[in-house]
Amino acid sequence: MPINEPSSNIPLAEVLRAANGLVAAKLIEDWALGGALAAIYYVEPFTTYDADIFFIPADKGLTAGIPAIYAHLQAQGWQVEREHLLVRGFPVQFLAAGGLTEEAVREAERIEFEGVPAKVFRAEHIVAIAASVGRAKDKSRIEQMLQQADLDKMQLEKILQRHKLKLP
Amino acid sequence: MKLEMRQKLAREPFAEKTRKVGQLVRLAKTFPRRAARSGSPGQPMIFNRTITLKDTWAKEAQRG
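^ inputs. structure came back:
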């Protein structure tokens, strides 16, 4: 199927493969899946309309190499719509990691998704990031993660302390 | 939904869960008004609209 042909399923394997391609092209150092899809790795499925890929930039300049990332993916048939890149019509946001999110990328869990090696934020980092953002939906996410994910409470406490965060 | 059922869903393989997310989006396409009224992560299996997207994929899905 051509890469810009819309899909009714989430083309997650293609997203992950593309992120690996960015590492191979030396456009990013490392990456991990974050956001709602990372939470869904640990909890029951819920509706979400995009994927968040957090990356550690290879280019430490102000742009974090984002123009080159966009150009690389557009050359592969991805489309751009505002802050999102679209693969098969599915929006993906590439977000430069820093501080807590950079730590989350570096310590992310290695998984394999449909044969594609990938990394996904650890549950403890998802909770800590939600605590740091603090919107209503983040508080709901924390509650859901605490109920359903197999959290390492000590690890979570260490992360919260390290980043001076508190659970709501 | 009972907590046990939700925890059982949470333990399913990730690929299966992402497939279900796709199903939920298709449900939102079939019942867009109902989906738009529901949800948060605390109301799982229905709708957790991530903030950023205004929502090309969803719009495409709703157009069919």
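Residues 35-57 of chain B have pLDDT under 50 and may be disordered. Chain B touches chain A at residues 3, 6-7, 9-10, 12, 14-15, 17-22, 24-26, 28, 35, 40-53, 55-58, 60-61 (CB under 8 Å).
thumbs up if we can close this ticket
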